[in-house]
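thread: overnight batch results

M.L. [08:02]
morning all. the overnight job finished for the chain we discussed friday. pasting input first so we're all looking at the same thing
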Amino acid sequence: MREWVCGCCGRWRVSVELIRGRYRYRLVHRYRPEFGGGNNVIGEVSSVAELEELLRSRSPLGLADLHEAA
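M.L. [08:03]
and the structure it wrote out:
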């Protein structure tokens, strides 16, 4: 599974998974440990254009703010 994280804080993540023969992009917001940790799945989409729209509408990020996780 590939994953990208935001360069600002590392709490926004986009993972790419192969589900039933199709790739799905999943946007997740991770909570800080002092707030209990955990993940909040914001949404799943099936194309990069839809991912860009999801990022624009539900997060303070754009595609250019993401980099591949190490």
